[in-house]
Amino acid sequence: MAAVMDISYVCSLGLPVHVPAKTSKALLAEALQVAKPVQSLETTQDVGVAGQVDPPLQSSAAASKPLYMDATYVFQCQSSIEHSKLSEDGQALLVQLNQTVFHPQGGGQPTDIGRLLADGVPPLDVVFVSKDKVDQSTIWHECRGDVQHWLGKKGLEVTCVVDDARRRLCARLHSAGHLLDVAMMAAGFRWKPGKGYHFPDGPYVEYLPSEEGRQVDLKDTKAKELVLQELASKMKELIDRNVPTGIGYVDGTRTITMDGVACGCGGTHVEFSGEIGEVTIKKIQSKQGNIRVSYALA
Ligand SMILES: [Zn+2]
To answer: What whole-number distance in Å separates Cα of residue 110 and Cα of residue 112?
Structure first.
């Protein structure tokens, strides 16, 4: 098995680079994201590069076609159950489907939530979605509800319904992180993007400092303030220009391009930067040797 490549949404490819987006249907690179299952979003902390909690969901079940990579604003699909099992506490049903519109938590992006519907059985709430730790082509849907009716239903045709408001919010939060990389480059910084955290409760991108390019003294309050203002201004300009998000494949890796800046990513994105809306650059601070730039959506 190839080494797991956690690209968070940018890190392993180094600096975002200007790469022409391709539209070939090359095979997806394995393991675009690291998943860290949790029981609820409220308890979720960081799931970016540093996600180190062992996911409890492991299996050698078959691959789940990741339809969420094809389109952000498709919220439903028809699927069939490949495999299911009760969680260890017996309270949840862990479902693997042949294909899914649910984005699994990972790469700094929260899990999608929603419902599974099928004839003859009560609907289930999908409360968490994650990639299998061993086989990252397998996606598990942690479902709650009257799960007893769903036991042993291999092959059952189901309708997947993603919570569209949450999907839209996640795409905006996540895409703002990409746009921040663009703004950072435009401002002359050459720091390598690392961990991204694109949750609603305080999103940020961390950068690895480099001696190349522009520098800023983080102990200089005035200098930091000027950088914040400059980044905010560049973000606004990029959003006002409504630049499109390009999705293609470079050497088999799904690659996202915004304003000519490309990086590897397995997440969901807005189609145009204008959908992100107003972005505030909140803080720039040193975090364990990295430089964290925090932002917020209006
Ligand atoms: Zn992305």
So the answer is: 7
Give the tokens for residue 10.
Answer: 């940018």
Q: Give the model confidence (pLDDT) of 174-222 as tens digits.
A: 999 999 999 999 999 999 889 999 999 999 999 999 999 999 999 999 9
Say how many Å lie between the CA of residue 178 and the centre of ligand 1.
Answer: 6
In tens, the pLDDT along 235-275 reads 999 999 999 999 999 999 999 999 999 989 999 999 999 99
How many angstroms does the Cα of residue 123 sit away from the middle of ligand 1? 31
- CA 258 / ligand 1 centre spacing (Å): 10
Distance 283 CA to ligand 1 centre (A): 21
Going from the Cα of 266 to the center of ligand 1, the distance in angstroms, rounded, reads 6
Structural domains in the chain, sorted by start: 53-163 (2.40.30.130), 167-297 (3.30.980.10)
Rounded average pLDDT over 42-69: 52
Other C-beta atoms lying within 10 Å of the C-beta of residue 22: 15
Q: Give the pLDDT confidence score for residue 45 in this predicted structure.
A: 27
Edge-to-edge, what's the strand order for the sheet holding 245-250? 245-250, 253-258, 261-264
Angle between helices 221-240 and 164-186 (to 10 degrees): 120
Q: How far is the CA of 281 from the centre of ligand 1 (A)?
A: 19
Task: Give the environment of ion ligand 1: residues with CB less than 5 A.
Answer: 9, 256, 265, 267
